[in-house]
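Anyone up for a design puzzle?
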């Protein structure tokens, strides 16, 4: 222990009236002022938790591993952590950019599909008229007859009706329809 920093109040234990008496006698005790709302335990926890960040930051600022009292292996570990953090940031950045690009492209595609749909809906009537004029009134008669059959419920579209008719005539079982 190099120094002990704590408030100057004596802390009693079972063996001593002041647990810091031996450190005070050695001249290694530095008294601190108490601050309401500040916990020494929280500060120590933050220091220990952020120790590697502190070391990396100071290495980046130009301090040597020797000045920070860290080993070669610890220095290499910190360098590796730095590179991994850089790779993670690049992945996050690229993912976010890629996601935004994809969202933009999907919006463009949706707009183009809406435009194409509207175009073909507008042209649909023209194609029907052109087809009817090319193939004459026969097409109109066929479509007209089919519309009347559907409206009357006798059209070819009611396959269940054909099945019922086939069952009643017995032709479904014989294989002929």
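Challenge accepted. My sequence:
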């Amino acid at each position: 222990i190099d120094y002990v920093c704590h408030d100057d109040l004596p802390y009693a234990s079972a063996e001593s009236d002041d647990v810091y008496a031996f450190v005070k006698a050695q001249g290694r005790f530095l008294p601190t002022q108490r601050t309401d709302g500040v916990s020494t335990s929280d500060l120590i926890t933050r220091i220990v938790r952020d120790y590697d960040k502190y070391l990396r930051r100071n290495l980046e600022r130009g301090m040597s591993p020797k000045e920070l009292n860290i080993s070669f292996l610890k220095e290499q570990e910190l360098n590796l952590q730095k590179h991994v953090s850089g790779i993670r940031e690049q992945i996050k950045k690229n993912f976010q950019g890629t996601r935004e690009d994809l969202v933009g492209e999907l919006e463009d595609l949706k707009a183009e599909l809406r435009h194409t749909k509207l175009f073909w809906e507008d042209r649909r009537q023209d194609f029907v008229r052109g087809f009817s004029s090319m193939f004459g009134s026969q097409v109109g008669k066929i479509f007209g007859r089919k519309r009347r059959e559907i409206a009357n419920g006798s059209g070819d579209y009611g396959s269940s009706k054909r099945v019922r008719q086939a069952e009643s005539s017995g032709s479904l079982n014989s294989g002929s329809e």
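A detail worth pointing out: The first helix runs from residue 21 to 26.
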